[in-house]
Design goal:
With about 190 residues, the protein is mostly helical. Among the domains are: about 65-155; about 155-185, no CATH class. It is about 65% helix and about 10% strand. It is built from seven helices and three strands, in the order αααααααβββ. The chain has helices at about 5-20, 30-40, 40-50, 50-60, 65-80, 90-115, 120-155; strands spanning about 155-160, 165-170, 180-185. Helix 1 (about 5-20) packs antiparallel against helix 2, helix 4 runs parallel beside helix 6 and helix 6 packs antiparallel against helix 7 (about 120-155).
Length: about 190
């Protein structure tokens, strides 16, 4: 017989607390004990409170497992492509929003395609077209929000000091676009 580890005991204790608090009117002492248990394990409460992940599960729930898992990998790849790991907390929230809106848009697009393929159900197609337009707006708004926050948090600015002259360049330096602002710092005049 396998020996119970401390982790197994902690998991069982947490499950018991969840069971005790999953009532219409749980005891306040049980709620306080559950809160303390969750506070002790940050990874646990982060997983348990990830409603974005729950939304992904809900949106993909009717897909076969192979497609569902492929979609989860795609969402992870999108997050990586958008710089999730290096991003500040506010950007991570927006990246999650972008990927969730993308998933919702893709699924809505699929259902719309199915609804419009059935030419006998124009009312259903109209309803899904409105949903599709709404999903497109949410997706584009999420992208726009992420872009705006990135611009504010990471302005494209370069400061060059050449001799006694300082030149500040703001904008897309690689493409040569943007406003150039220069300020002269003549070190020799201060001597």
């Amino acid at each position: 017989m396998a020996k119970k580890t401390t982790n197994d005991k902690a998991t069982q204790k947490l499950q018991a607390l969840v069971h005790k608090t999953d009532l219409e009117k749980p005891a306040q002492k049980d709620i306080a004990a559950l809160r303390r248990a969750l506070q002790q394990d940050q990874a646990l409460w982060r997983r348990a409170s990830d409603l974005n992940h729950m939304a992904h599960r809900q949106l993909t729930g009717k897909f076969p497992p192979a497609i569902r898992e492929a979609l989860y990998l795609r969402l992870e790849a999108m997050q990586q492509d958008l710089g999730y790991a290096e991003a500040p907390a506010i950007e991570r929230l927006l990246i999650e929003q972008v990927t969730t809106c993308w998933l919702n848009l893709q699924i809505t697009q699929l259902v719309y395609a199915v609804a419009t393929a059935d030419l006998t159900n124009s009312a259903g197609a109209d309803q899904w077209e409105r949903r599709l337009i709404s999903a497109q707006r949410r997706y584009l708004k999420a992208i726009e929000s992420l872009t705006q926050v990135r611009r504010r948090l990471r302005p494209n600015a370069v400061q060059l000091n050449i001799g006694a002259q300082q030149l500040n360049v703001v904008g897309d330096v690689k493409a040569g676009k943007g406003k150039a602002q220069s300020a002269t710092n003549d070190e020799t005049s201060n001597e």
